[in-house]
Design brief:
With 129 residues, this protein is α+β, with helices and mostly antiparallel strands. The protein has three helices and four strands, in the order E-H-E-H-E-H-E. It has a single domain (30-128), classed as 2-Layer Sandwich (60s Ribosomal Protein L30, Chain: A), CATH 3.30.1330. A four-stranded mixed sheet has the order 1-4-2-3.
Length: 129
């Protein structure tokens, strides 16, 4: 600007793995009932959409992370998060998707504080690799 230096600050916000352009599909989180790793119809629908998205965008690798609310022991929640991630992975594989990996974070990223907000913690998140 008029031959002067401009000091730019960088944002501290976490960077999204791959920004989605308008009109493109996205890989949305899949939510679970309390103490469950069973996929309900809504979850299967979201996973079917994710499978179509992965195929249409030719995504080579996707990692799924299973999460839980803070209730239960740390060991139990890690195992439950893993069951959730594995459940989603197996369903996507049954739809012909490959290049999938899965892990659990248990309750580590939980932000809920009561029954109404814990539902957001019970999920599987997707990350393109």
């Amino acid at each position: 600007m008029n031959n002067t230096c401009v000091n730019q600050t960088q944002s501290v916000a976490p960077e999204a793995p791959h920004p989605i352009e308008k009109g493109q599909c996205s890989l949305d989180s899949v939510y679970f009932d309390f103490d469950s790793s069973t996929l309900d119809q809504s979850s299967r629908d979201k996973l079917s959409s994710a499978a179509s998205c992965i195929k249409s965008r030719n995504i080579k690798s996707v990692h799924m992370t299973g999460l839980t609310d803070p209730r239960g022991t740390e060991e139990y929640n890690l195992a439950l998060g893993d069951r959730r991630a594995q459940s989603a992975k197996k369903y996507l594989e049954s739809l012909g998707v490959s290049g999938l990996s899965a892990s659990s974070m248990g309750e580590e990223l939980a932000t809920g504080t009561d029954d109404s907000s814990w539902g957001r913690d019970r999920r599987v998140d997707f990350q393109e690799k």
